[in-house]
Design goal:
The chain is α/β, with parallel strands linked by helices and 165 residues long. The chain contains six helices and six strands. Among the domains are: 81 residues, Ribosomal Protein L15, Chain: K, domain 2, CATH 3.100.10; 32 residues, no CATH class.
């Protein structure tokens, strides 16, 4: 029997994982110092790949804090941590986050059900309604039963205590 059939399967491969390239502040500083990246021009994902700073970026590049950044840069990338943005701004630079790709409408069974015509005709749940609508329904619909309930309680009190009547 072949080796691959004798060994057990290990782990899990997420089919929805994103292939995002990591860019640390330290590697960015080294690339600017060595001249791979021109700090005067905006640094985009394409420039980072051409310079060899980031290898994979199918779904974009994310800036992470690791190391120190001294160069004033303008970055145009997909994502950045809060610390990464703070480090670039502290050095006098700027981070422009690119908008993420919007998922197409109507993709998948749940979306087809959600966006079918007439889906909005269903009666709204109480939690989904505006507070004004709920108050208006409560005022118009519940006043009469409350009065009837008060009369019923009064009549129950008369019936329950024969000594007082």
């Amino acid at each position: 029997m072949p080796l691959y059939r004798r060994l057990p399967k290990r782990g899990f491969k997420n089919p929805f994982s994103k292939d995002i390239g990591e860019l640390t502040t330290g590697t960015l500083e080294n690339a600017v110092a060595s001249g791979k990246i021109d700090g005067k021009k905006p640094v985009t994902e394409a420039v980072l790949v051409e310079a060899g700073v980031v290898k994979k970026n199918k779904h974009g590049v994310r800036l992470i804090v690791k190391g120190e950044l001294k160069a004033k840069l303008t970055l145009e990338i997909t994502g950045a941590s809060k610390g990464g943005i703070a480090a670039v701004e502290k050095a006098g630079g700027k981070v422009n986050l690119l908008p993420q790709k919007v998922k197409p409408e109507g993709k998948g069974k749940a979306r087809h059900r959600k966006f079918k015509e007439g889906a909005d005709d269903k009666p709204k749940k109480k939690a989904d309604q505006a507070p004004e609508e709920v108050e208006a329904k409560e005022e118009s619909g519940k006043e009469e039963p409350v009065e009837n309930a008060a009369k019923a309680e009064a009549s129950d009190d008369d019936k329950s205590d024969p000594d007082q009547g």
